[in-house]
From TrEMBL:
InterPro entries in alphabetical order: AB_hydrolase, AB_hydrolase_1, AB_hydrolase_fold
Pfam entry (one): Abhydrolase_1
Tagged with keyword Hydrolase: yes
Gene3D superfamilies on file: alpha/beta hydrolase (3.40.50.1820)
UniProtKB keywords: Hydrolase
GO molecular function, one term: hydrolase activity
Source species of the chain: Exidia glandulosa HHB12029
Protein name per the record: Alpha/beta-hydrolase
Residue stretches making up the AB hydrolase-1 domain: 34-272
Length: 288
């Protein structure tokens, strides 16, 4: 039972092992691509539960993450390459097309999948998505949001973050934790929920490998116009890391797209404004 609840893994024709986790029992199968920098899918498994009646989630952990194997050549750890893992999952299931969701870097990978395999992506759900090549668009909004934050200790920790100095997964987790409150608009309301859901230790090896490989393919911003999938773009108004101008650029570039900006929310819109998030997602699915 490939879609039975719980943990699964399969071997691709090239010999790679990919793992995925099935949660929910809803009528729509939605592949959620975990970010490629080592965060894994546990956070999403723990926080998408209020959508379990709408979706059967397939949380794909891309190459290098937990039980999914690293490629022999670490140059193949870019987001562009990770789109191949989504295609491998589609082939494994035997589906003609997939509905694919992605948050942050997972959204970047989802877009690459729709670019590289345009006939295989039916719907995209992009949540605070990263867009390779959009750093100049993001920078002014990121600065403005951080400058206005009251928690300037976290802002300083973020601006002083030096991933190259980290040696262990625990150091990586501690560094991320020092500025994690910035990812929600109101830490006093939502940070405890976010922190409690992030139960696994992120993998530094994934972060370093992806960072070293990513520069091979930074033209995503120039290629999203080729995406054929019907696309929903959701972003929090106070998202500093993948700010509103990036999502606006994504929505402007993808022909069959709609954009929803959720107020009083940062990078984790579904945790911060769950009812608004659910309503937007349900409306998108009812119209297709």
């Amino acid at each position: 039972m490939k879609l039975a609840s719980g943990a699964h893994e399969f071997t691709t024709p090239s010999g790679a092992v990919l793992s995925y986790y099935v949660t929910g029992h809803g009528p729509h199968v939605l592949v959620n691509v975990a970010p490629g920098w080592g965060a894994a899918s546990v956070l999403y498994q723990n926080t998408f539960t209020f959508l379990n009646d709408l979706f059967t989630f397939v949380h794909l952990e891309v190459r290098g993450t937990r039980r999914s194997t690293f490629p022999p050549d670490l140059r193949d750890m870019s987001s562009w390459h990770m789109a191949e893992d989504v295609e491998s999952l589609r082939e494994y299931f035997g589906f003609d097309t997939l509905d694919v969701a992605g948050h942050s870097n997972g959204g970047c990978i989802a877009q690459w999948f729709a670019i590289r395999y345009p006939t295989r992506a039916r719907r995209l759900v992009l949540l605070g998505a990263q867009l390779n090549g959009a750093s100049a668009i993001a920078a002014p909004a990121t600065k403005a949001i951080l400058d206005a934050r009251p928690d300037q200790d976290c802002v300083r920790a973020y601006r002083n973050y030096d991933p190259g100095s980290l040696q262990t997964d625990d150091e990586y987790a501690a560094a991320l934790g020092s500025f994690l409150p910035l990812y929600v608009a109101k830490p006093e309301r939502d940070f405890a929920t976010l922190n409690a859901a992030f139960t696994n230790t992120p993998q530094l090896a994934c972060s370093k490998a992806q960072a070293n490989a990513e520069s091979q393919h930074l033209d995503e911003i120039d290629r999203i116009a080729s995406i054929k999938a019907r696309t929903l773009v959701i972003v929090g108004k106070e998202d500093f890391i993948c700010p509103v101008p990036v999502s606006k650029r994504i929505a402007a570039g993808i022909r069959r797209s709609s954009l929803s900006v959720i107020g009083d929310a940062g990078h984790f819109t579904w945790i911060e404004q769950p009812q608004s998030f659910r309503d937007i997602l349900a409306t998108f699915y009812s119209a297709t």
